[in-house]
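Translate structure to sequence.
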């Protein structure tokens, strides 16, 4: 499902215009990005958590690891409730195949 399909489905289910849903989606993604830039984590109930993680940078040319270089990257951790719901749904669908 891409963004357009996602927005269209939310608009259909909620009765709100596609334009309004698209704007809310865009503002939401900007807010998440701004929070991560400020090194905050964003918790979305029933979905999961956006957070920043750091790890040591790798030296791709061999030799010793660069102790001063850190790699900072965003991640999303899905909540356990949603993870369980997806696993149960997959098991349910496989039983009919």
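Result:
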């Amino acid at each position: 499902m891409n963004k357009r399909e996602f927005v269209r489905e939310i608009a259909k289910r909620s009765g709100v215009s596609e334009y309004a849903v698209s704007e809310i989606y865009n503002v939401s993604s900007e807010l998440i990005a701004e929070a991560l830039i400020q090194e905050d984590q964003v918790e979305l109930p029933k979905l999961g958590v956006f957070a920043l993680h750091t790890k040591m940078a790798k030296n791709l040319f061999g030799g010793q690891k660069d102790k001063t270089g850190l790699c900072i990257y965003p991640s999303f951790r899905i909540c356990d409730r949603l993870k369980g719901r997806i696993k149960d749904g997959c098991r349910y669908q496989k039983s009919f195949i």
